[in-house]
Batch of 4 targets.
Target 1
Amino acid sequence: MAQEIYFSVPSGFYADDIELEMTSNSSGDIRYTLDGTDPTFESPIYNQPITVEDRNAESNSISNIPTNPATTYFKYVWKVPSGNIPKMRIVKATLFNNSIPISKVFYQEYFIDAPLSDIEMPIFSIIADSVGLFGYEEGIYVPGKDYDDDPDTWQPGNYYERGSDWERVAQVSFYENKNLVVRQKVIMDMHGGGSRIMPCKSIRLAAKSSLGNEYFEFPFFKNKNWTKYKRILLRNSGQDFYRSLFADVLLQSLLKNQNVEYQASRQVVVFVNGAYWGIHNLREKYDKYYFENYHDGDLEDIDYMEIAMEYIAKEGSTQDYENMNEALLNLDLSIDENYQTIASQIDIDNYIDYHISKIYGGGTDWTGNNERIWRTHNQGSRWRWVGNDYDDIFQELEKDSYQHATRTDWEQWPNPEWATRLFRQLMTNRNFAIQYKNSLRFHLDNTYSSANVIAAIDSLTQIYRPEMPRHIQRWNYPDSLEKWEATILDFKDFAMQRPDFIWENFQQYFPSIYENPDEIKLFPNPTKDFIFIDLPEWWAPNINFQIFDTSGKLMQDGYLSKSAQNKISVEHLPKGLFFISIYDKSHFESHRFIVIRE
């Protein structure tokens, strides 16, 4: 029988100090600690109930450890916490036979007193060996020896190291509505690229069968159906850490009804070894398990790549994509036959939605960076783009994003010629250009309408606002609550004006497409009962249409007439976003429309 230690009071939230008793099913001495360290033979022996008190008045300890060097860019440099930050009590106990431990370490977590009880967000507690996190030679959360060995390289530090040597075993607990709902051992390591330089860093947590659990089996994200995750992220909001904390969360939330993969999110408070670590964004992780969940792909049968100033294979190979992009140098896509060759390799609807999201956000760190693309090896599978890394958006209202996306005179970060090539070549094809323009107009009127985006900003602001004072006390980022509130107002101003600016920007770069009167007209949009379609004169007599939902399921098909205004009933369709493909023997257009219900 395994040796067990039992605690009379479970982990949780308590208004006052608690009296704790510990018992065991085996003989031996119970040795315990109250500071979160593992018990040793030098630890006190439990022989009577102990009083567990709150820790909030204690010194900050690990929270005062600098997590980036003083040479860091001034916007990101680590700052000392403002006063004592909140702390919870970790009680650990191990059974000893004389000097020999004969059981594993058992522990409970106690959040005591008001500063902890009024946290409204869910809580992730991470317990790991402090040397493995903050030690000079092996600490994965500090600049450490790696920085001192080569401080002149671009952003050196222990936290930039990768691989199994820089993974740490950790115990995580997840509290929802103050109830402990997940507790298991995991593999922990750092996540992200340049954002690892931030004082607060993104953390990757991976379940592993050898540690007791092959998956996290809990529905972390209420708007997604999955209850089983192999890996999850506790994200620091990247370069947005010192601004809003939710730029990427905001933009990706607007993708949920589009033909683009996006990462679900929740806002959580993190504790590290009992110390308050601030707000993080709990996110899904893009990997083979993600695509397996949402697209029924074979785990060993996908290509998943990252563009980070080079092609990086995350799963499978990048070769086919590289070959396709290279072929564009000698392929005239204004010829429909050539265009169809490329369209058979990439998901055009997906690419357009993704591209417009980047244009709208006005970020800089793309097209040669922060792009993720994937496909399965199944017959007919095409490359698809996923929503990723919108941390630098909403900063430049008048950002000339089409100039950025069509640049040809640059071979360095962030938009070398080879990275803008696909969009530039596709826009030479009339059918693609019209589809892109129609999609842009649709998204500016709906997805990225001022009312829709401001509503999303307000919704997120209400979640973050109650916790921001504590987060600012911990990190001194943003500079103050007032500075954070000013950023929210800036976001709203961006949302009010950006659609009009983008439309003018598009007209400037593609005047022949904007001014073309010979295009299909579809109205009303949104609609409840019918859509009307007007066709230009140059279409051939035999015209077909197909209506698909966002998963690609065919919902309706039929024929259109050139001689009269076409009226299509959509009364049978459920509420949501749909795509209608209209085509004759030599032309193809795709439009989208929304069905609304009372």
Target 2
Amino acid sequence: MDAAHIRNFSIIAHIDHGKTTLSDRLLHRTGTISTREMEDQLLDSMDLEKERGITIKAHPVTMLYQAANGETYELNLIDTPGHVDFSYEVSRSLSACEGALLVVDAAQGVEAQTVANVHLAMKQNLAIIPVINKIDLPHADVAQAKQQLEDILAIPGDTAIKASAKEGIGIDEILEAIVARIPAPKTNVPSSLQALVFDSYFDTYKGVVIHVRVFSGELKPGMQVKLLHSGKNVEVKEVGSFNPKPYVRAKLEVGETGYITANIKSPQEVKMGDTITDARHPATVLQGFKEIHPMVFSGIYPINTADYEHLKSNLAKLQLNDSAFVFQSETSVALGFGFRCGFLGLLHLEIVQERLRREYNMDIIATYPSVIYRVTMTDGSVKEVDNPAFLPEPNYIGKIEEPMVKAFVICPNENIGDMMSLISEKRGNVDHTETLDARRVMLTSALPLNEILIDFHDRIKSITRGYGSMDYEHAGYQESDMVKLDMLVNTESVDAFSCIVHRDKAEGRGRALAAKLKEVIPRQQYAVAIQAAIGGKIIARETVSALRKDVTAKCYGGDITRKRKLLEKQKEGKKRMKSFGSVNIPQEAFIEVLKA
């Protein structure tokens, strides 16, 4: 199709503001999906997405729309996730577009992730069309939402389109606005092929399927193309688009998005943000995406050690589909061979584990999530540590710095006090508060990343009864009094239970772990000491009492010294047993402690 009749756009919003419902409605209205095939959350292809009601992957789809002026336009939509952990998916999708629909819930107003996604879109100089969704709700406040668009995002409120994706209100106005307000792709570029890789997945029959946006030239089967990052030359076997299932096309022209297959068997050969160009007349590299740095690390181990190679190949396939996920091999005394995996956040970690279990049928166990600490040694060298096992001895450490985040928390006015006490409990401090409107405030605060890993988001939701929202960005490193907490079972350190914590919180953490281990370690013939230690100092202890045989059962009557003699003999035996006895910690104990 002629480039002047093509429009590429994304839908961006906070979680649960109606992106996916709106994309369903656009597909139905343009006739891409017939009423018979229509279902909710049509673009969310994973069971996980449908179950949780969240979008995890960006989904491209091509629609044909006959506008009011009688012309037919090709609309390429990329539906994007809303959660902060998937903001990398959003930035990749936006780089393949010229415009974005910004969806704001009329009842909730502008929230933390809305602000973050708008900044991403403005950085790419996209045309933004604001849509105020869910106007059919009884407590919808359209005037308030318009006011927030102006005050918080500096977007004129009168340009917003009022809509209800569920009821189908305002859908025609949105489609007309896409045609009128979003610019057509630029065509005054070199004639040689330039296409941007913005996503990919692995197909058992076709190999790696690459999602591309063509910026110049054209892509058709039989062409020899070059992947500039890996320098590999391949022949294009098939090109096509999505509606929302893949369908084959004769070629992809300037401004169009779609997919190509080229018999690429290894997931490592395709890199996100790579440029595809003609092998005979190579063009220059397109502006790709920045390398993404994982924030949270966790070890993933197969429960059955024989599954190690199987897990390795499945992780490589998953990485192709989710380029923000990284992994490398590691071993643990307790858990055997496994992988150290990096994630963007805790929801990301949870989703990856769940996908490994469901899509690849892997039985896995994950270790306690940790972050990267920067350790400056006494000789001046700097070492990055993401695993407590690699932390040097205290006498070699000059200082330890931990990663910080700048968190933006939006909450109702009445919850400010509770919110501030939660932030200070997590060793954070509030830099400033900003009143957004009559009902809500935004707290900007600095917090250590490892404090917000586990339950911070859940606590915000429970304090604000679901009305709070948060977004965060990386904010460098800060020196802290961090220590390595070791767990000793029968005076032997167990590396799987070690962790790096702040000195003030070490005792509480040690007591909790010791109490949990006491429940799960089976009783032995002798008393087993479970201790939490910082260096050589024991800060918490629990004892698993011994199983005792009643050796005095055969003594009835007679002198007390006979009983005492038998008990002394038993005591000696237990003492000797303890000196060379070892405690086998069952696999279930590790799983239980990690759950705790």
Target 3
Amino acid sequence: MKNIRNFCIIAHIDHGKSTLADRLLEVTNTVSQRDMQDQVLDDMDLEKERGITIKSHAIQMNYVRRQETGDKEIRSEEYVLNLIDTPGHVDFSYEVSRAIAACEGALLVVDATQGIQAQTISNLYLALENDLEIIPVMNKIDLDSAMPEEVADEIVDLLGCKPEEILRCSAKTGMGVPEILDAIVDRIPAPEGDPNAPLQALVFDSVFNPFRGIISYFRIMNGTIKTGDHVKFFSTGKEYDADEVGVLRLNMEPCKQLSAGNVGYIISGIKTSKEVRVGDTITHVGEPCEKPIEGFEAVKPMVFAGVYPVDTDDYEELRASIEKLQLNDASLTFEPESSLALGFGFRCGFLGLLHMEIVQERLTREFNMDVITTVPNVQYKVKLTNGSEIDVYNPSGMPEPNNIAEVYEPYIHAQIITKADFIGPVIKLCMDKRGILKNQNYLTTDRIEITFDLPLGEVVFDFYDKLKSISKGYASFDYYINGYQPSKLVKLEILLNGDPVDALSTLTYVDNAYPIGRKMCEKLKDLIPRQQFDVAIQAAIGSKIIARETVRQVRKDVTAKCYGGDITRKRKLLEKQKEGKKRMRQVGNVEVPQSAFLAVLKLD
């Protein structure tokens, strides 16, 4: 055990985590030159296309360290390094928290050209809460725009470490990587635990394999597990045989046994996804541990949206797909719901808008499911006139206005780090989103940290995109939930020919309702195809119509055969056509294309 090191890499987006992981794998010869590629641990197509890490990835490396002893002899010692590469985007912070729970140390990577960003600080606090040993690493020092001295001062201010403790490297060229491996061995403590105690293993991830069932990844805190052992999962109490245990290299490598301190996987032929939970404890049936491993928090979704199958017959298939996806992405939550316009579907909870986009894309690619996603909402608390309080996740659950005493909406504590040049536009953006300025703090002469309290409902749409565009990509953003505050919210409904489309309904602040309603009507007018009858698109608050657009009917020229003659002949034909259109409107229904739902999300 003294030669095992478990560590993760944490950093802001694009600071070089995955590239540094590539170099570590290369230097330790874990991946052969033939198999080597950029971002080797990012195995999803989506990750490669977008250049972001979505899943944390575990891999084991063997590192042979050669040291000179006093008599000029070279002593070799082999270490087992378990690396977990983590995502950098704020929407995948739950992945980071799970990786941190399985480690004793962390490499904190900071870009020498950009300095400390919001997510760097957020991930650092996560690591410090778990008492991890932090090794600061300054990356990209080979670039002309690098500012090593200024960034080193920022790291010293943040961590309180000595300047000589900061490692400097270039993950692209491999410069400084051997020193990082030595620092991992010297500074990160070996895992603690008793190999002879009852088995206690923390499940930190799982994947679904159609041939072998569910594969769970675990970190052993105490005890030993062997192939063929009779084990059980603590939270469900279900028992299984360990058909195969092994370590995670580039591919899974079976081995006979794993003991305390190690990271590995178990295959036990589990077919039902509900039987495995991230954060659960695996123990032996014959000699179980007394209590499960503590400290694993349940995920708190930030954004809620309805996910419906395009074809209503695919409802059960969609349920199975979401359950399998939830195995691999524990931050996704879902519950069944139904809609008048879209039939049966699920109300899903996401950590943010990017997370929602990625889940939708993964359902399409990995499970071949065509889905419609409704307008995202956050969770509101409503106090009724009879004194009771209810949670509202979507507009259709909002009670009638005469039953509502008070509506409370979630607020976030937002931390924005930007260059001093962009402070004006950033503050204006936050003020427009009903933000309250709490604090301004200059990190350096050129970089400022601004703290705001903002309503979460204003942030879930396009706040992050706008922040990036007004700051030319320099601003970084991080947040946490900061309780509920009373607010003036109304339910904005979209009516097509007088019938409400509940998938397009949204809960919004009263002052924003008029402009949003008008824009939605204008957008839908362009997107809804013309029918054989007029389609009235209306935005309404309760029984009050606040905006209207009309999609004109497609009309046949019924008067073409009349040339000359009395005007009454033409009028008779037009009146007959009008009657027909009226009857058609009574029985006709309006199809809303998927592009219309997506366009409403991207309203400016």
Target 4
Amino acid sequence: MKKDIKKKLKDFWYGKPHKERRLGDLYIDKTGLYKHREWRGVKDTFYYFHMIWLYNYANLVVDVMKNGGLFVFAKGVWRYRWVGQTYITVMHWFDRGHEGMRGEALRATAWHYRAMTNETIRQFMRMFRADTKLNKGKQNEIYKKTMSHDETVCGAIFYPWRDKIDNVALQMIPYFVTCHVNCQTVLNYIDAVQSIGLPADPCPMCQAEAGIYVLDDYPDYSPAFVASNEACDGSVGTGILQDWFMNKPYFSMPQPMQFDDPLVHKHTMAEIEEAWKFIEEHMGIPFDWDQYVKYTEKFNKLTEFEWEKWDVAANTPYYPINGVAQALYRIYYSQDGYRDIWAQTDEKVRKIMHRCVENKIETFPETRHRLLAWSCAPLYYSFWTTWAYNCWGLNTVMNMDSLMFDMVLRTDTYENALDDLARYHEWAPMRRMAVGGYKHVFELWEYMKRFNCDMVMMYDQLACKGMQGIHGMFEDEFRERNIHAIWMPHALPESRTVSRAEIRRIINDYMFTVMQEEPLDPSLLDFDDSLSW
């Protein structure tokens, strides 16, 4: 009896140990929502309630007020369906990404989510303030000082004008971020573009981006547009539709596949200079070298801290950031370019990480296997990493797209700066290691060694013709190297092709039959979240 009381008091104060949590019992069937909040122990439960739930709810309002106010936000919600579908429900995204987490890992991961939410609000509020569709067809001053571009055109391209104009990626908010938060958001875009005759087999990412225009679900907030073809020819098709629907000055800045060729690299440098001339011409503001240097050097500091994080992740058990936060934050800030929120977040995370290292705090103590996730991830199920750790002890240490842009940009001379920026542009997410040739695709083995990983989660994007073409080569290499690799079929944002339940079943089957292991939390093996966000 005394033992039972002691145990209950201990569980109340510290939270149940990992193997007793039964997190799956918290779910309401089909919805993935909770019957009640997860009890993480007194300290972590109160931290989650005050510093994640209340703090972020309050700051969602503060961010909206700082960037245009509730009236502008309300107009955007009324006009664009993706706002209400996603950003009003954003705290459920926090819940899924932090499920089961405790201590310093909970804190560091939450700051990354906070930064992404803050920057997302800044971007869509900038869109709404400048949007002619919300301003009776008028082009206001904010419209004239905002540059729109593809989400795969890196923010560094616009540094020379950062003090005079702002740049906002058009598809980043309506498409890329939304399907991470709510897996139902972009399906209507895919259906819309297929309804006008596009076959179902091109990349669903490109279909969704094109469908935004078919349904007129995009803000008109800029005098001109800079496009790219990343990562494949499907993006070129998207570009054709974009150009047709937007009907405004449009510059295409390709990212070449054969970028290891010195002549191709010189061509990329020339393309960037042409893009700069295009921006000068249509924004009416000259190129400012000093601004480029200022923001590039600020961004370089983010990269240097990223390397510090990677070093801790690779060589210690003290890395306090879970797989989904690491991947999304890295992709978002490296593509978006320098913003103050990234530097502020890095300072907070640096303190937490140093504390973990100094005090030897094992942040993911139930790790059985260290995973490297390779190829392009399922956007509708980015939080599978949280589930995999809680259920099986699979710790996703690094993600392929996080490894793009792995360089410091020189600013000593214009020529060196342009040379490095071209390389940076060529190493965009999915371009270098997904369709950049077998040499870069097979960098997998080097990174497995670097991050001390013993397993690979091999993303199998069913509509990617490039990666499908070398499926067999990967299989041969895995066998020859005796590497455990789980193939995860998916269709980027298209959650109807392969369900999240099917992904979990594939992982479960591999862990039972090949690894012959038992789950840490059996309640997470099988549950229905078919109607979940």
